[in-house]
Amino acid sequence: MVSFMNNQKQQKPTLSGQRFKTRKRDEKERFDPTQFQDCIIQGLTETGTDLEAVAKFLDASGAKLDYRRYAETLFDILVAGGMLAPGGTLADDMMRTDVCVFAAQEDLETMQAFAQVFNKLIRRYKYLEKGFEDEVKKLLLFLKGFSESERNKLAMLTGVLLANGTLNASILNSLYNENLVKEGVSAAFAVKLFKSWINEKDINAVAASLRKVSMDNRLMELFPANKQSVEHFTKYFTEAGLKELSEYVRNQQTIGARKELQKELQEQMSRGDPFKDIILYVKEEMKKNNIPEPVVIGIVWSSVMSTVEWNKKEELVAEQAIKHLKQYSPLLAAFTTQGQSELTLLLKIQEYCYDNIHFMKAFQKIVVLFYKAEVLSEEPILKWYKDAHVAKGKSVFLEQMKKFVEWLKNAEEESGSLMIR
């Protein structure tokens, strides 16, 4: 019995040792990028330019070759025709193939067909997803090492792969590389990429993908710091035939600027900054970000109304509102120099009084206050009453305003007859 157990103990290390050696030998044979490259290139050369046959060859080869270990080599070959050296050049002494993206025709249809090859391959071997993403990030950093035609093909392919979900928009981070941006490579590449992406989907789908990875507000970084303006971006991409992208970036910038304006306004008001300083700041922001006055009055109104803790009792809130708004009338008046701005303010007051039920009875009092303080004038009030109001609380507010509107009309008629005399 003891002898039997000793035999067992002696056999264990021998057996495990044999397994260990076998595994090491197998690894060594597999861990040879050159041999892997030769197998792929030979197979691609045999299949020729029939991309259906290429996809089938790659599907079958995954069972025999170690795609997991050699993902980078595999994708280098499929894109550039051989293993890439740092910087994006092909090594002279290495085998290469013409069955690759860079040797294909420079048109969208061909790139769509190549996108299907990558798509099928990654669907079949799901573990290649991360490796492919890393490969594209690397290729984007190597853009300067490629010819203009190669860059164009890669841009079209990347756009299609972003559209069909094979790639995540976070790969665009590579385009913000300082050298690529400085030399204009990033912006030129982005033109081709976005054209093919929008061609496959639309600007809304593109915007959603960018938002998902917080890239929606970074597109201006495709240009050097001294050219990072909405005007430059709009001009460049509109001239390149991407008006919808230009408009999207302009809207994003405007939304961002408006949010920033409201935040800063509320801070200035809570600090009790003088109105002349606040007005000066707002006017500078309007000019800088091209924000029209009707939009600004809405922001100023919201900011003014958010600086107070309102009384919950309906009978007291009207008095509190009048006192508060009387104080802020000079600020509001600075941004109602246009009829449209006055009308916008009236609609904002209507919506606010409807949405905050304690203010339902305060609407007419607020409008009269603003009329007396010259924030609002007759014509926009009469227009609002006649046909420019919204549905929210319409019957209540029109009833409240009835006598005041009649008084305005009479006053207008009297002043008109005085002028005739």
TrEMBL record:
One Pfam family cited in the UniProt record for this chain: W2
Region (Disordered): 1-29
W2 domain: residues covered: 251-418
Record bears the keyword Phosphoprotein: no
The entry's keywords: Activator, Transcription, Transcription regulation, Translation regulation
Recorded GO CC terms: cytoplasm; membrane
InterPro entries: ARM-type_fold, eIF5-mimic_regulator, HEAT_5MP1_2, W2_5MP1/2, W2_domain
GO terms for biological process, alphabetical: regulation of translational initiation
Listed Polar residues bias regions: 1-19
UniProt similarity note: Belongs to the BZW family.
Name recorded for this polypeptide: Basic leucine zipper and W2 domains 1
Taxonomic lineage of the native organism: Eukaryota, Metazoa, Chordata, Craniata, Vertebrata
